[in-house]
Design goal:
With about 280 residues, the chain is an alpha+beta fold. The chain has helices at about 1-15, 115, 185-210, 225-245, 245-280, and strands at about 20-30, 45, 55-60, 60-70, 80-90, 95-100, 100, 105-110, 125-135, 140-150. The chain has 2 domains: about 15-150, Immunoglobulin-like, CATH 2.60.40; about 220-280. The chain has a 5-stranded antiparallel beta sheet. Helix 4 (about 225-245) packs antiparallel against helix 5 (about 245-280). Pathway: Protein modification; protein glycosylation. Belongs to the SWP1 family. It is found in: Endoplasmic reticulum membrane.
């Protein structure tokens, strides 16, 4: 997108018609808040001359500037890319404000100074006002100091960022209050919960003792003891999780132990299937 914008500007600058520009109907004045601009309260300023008397205004008043920009060749109105009012304070600080055109192509700056004070960054007092006009199609860009103004602008409070604040007094001591541990259940409830959790294992061992464990059909494979050792290790890991390990430690060891147990169990099932096919 930036490349297209640069190319469009270069294309415009190359093939655009270059003209001399003139400022016409230039008027400036200080108005009250609801005052209508007319010939009595506005002063005409000859182009490239300066208003002889200094303008004076307070924050409740309006600065009104109006003018037209036309081609010298045929007096046709134009709309340059850059039209600004520049305010230069006595200390060299400057403020640049955009001047926009209306539907008729006339340029008007009409703003209450209190509203515009934020753009002046807490500057107040005497300013030199200049009109700046520029465009790639303009042969004679304009930088015209047309008046001086003494503006009493209100100070706009701008809080200092917290990162730039400097504090020399000691800060308040930070005290941490930890949440009180929740009340634990009684020993009877804890023991009952332990028995309930261990009951499936007790039932499994009881069924094994009742049905019996048949080791005769175990295939002759080294994966059989590895599978049973891995299975016993998982039960032992559950016990350690109960009495010592936290969840993350348990999952770390279970990921390794479970992988070997899974592979060994798969090999045992494959060996059982091969033994069954041979017997049939």
């Amino acid at each position: 997108m930036k490349l297209l914008f640069i190319l469009s500007v270069l294309f415009t600058a190359t093939f655009a018609t270059v003209d001399d520009v003139a400022v016409t109907n230039f008027k400036v004045g200080i108005l009250a808040k609801d005052q209508v601009p007319d010939g009595e309260n506005l002063k005409n300023v000859v182009v490239h001359s300066k208003l002889p008397n200094e303008l004076k205004a307070d924050a409740s008043q309006r600065l009104y500037v109006s003018f037209n920009l036309v081609k010298k060749s045929d007096n046709a109105k134009i709309k340059p890319q850059q039209v600004f009012l520049r305010f230069v304070a006595q200390d060299g600080e400057d403020v640049v404000l955009v001047v926009k055109d209306d539907s008729n192509g006339n340029y008007v700056y009409d703003t209450i100074l209190r509203t515009a004070s934020k753009s002046f960054r807490n500057l107040s007092g005497q300013f030199k006002i200049s009109l700046l006009v520029g465009d790639v199609t303009i042969k004679n860009p304009i930088n015209w100091n047309f008046a001086d103004i003494d503006a009493s602008l209100p100070t706009v409070y701008e809080p200092t960022p917290k990162s730039q604040q400097v504090r020399y007094e000691p800060l308040n001591e930070i005290t941490h209050e930890f949440r009180q541990p929740e009340k634990r259940p009684s020993a009877v409830i804890s023991d009952l919960f332990t028995v309930i959790c261990l009951s499936p294992l007790v039932v499994l061992i009881g069924l094994w003792l009742q049905i019996g464990i048949n080791f005769q059909n175990a295939p002759a494979s080294p994966w059989v003891p590895i599978f049973h050792v891995g299975l016993a290790g998982i039960f032992g890991l559950y016990f350690l999780f109960w009495v010592q390990f936290n969840m993350f430690e348990t999952l770390k060891y279970l990921s390794v132990l479970g992988f070997f147990t899974f592979v060994a169990g798969n090999r045992v099932l494959r060996a059982l299937s091969e033994t069954k096919e041979k017997s049939e």
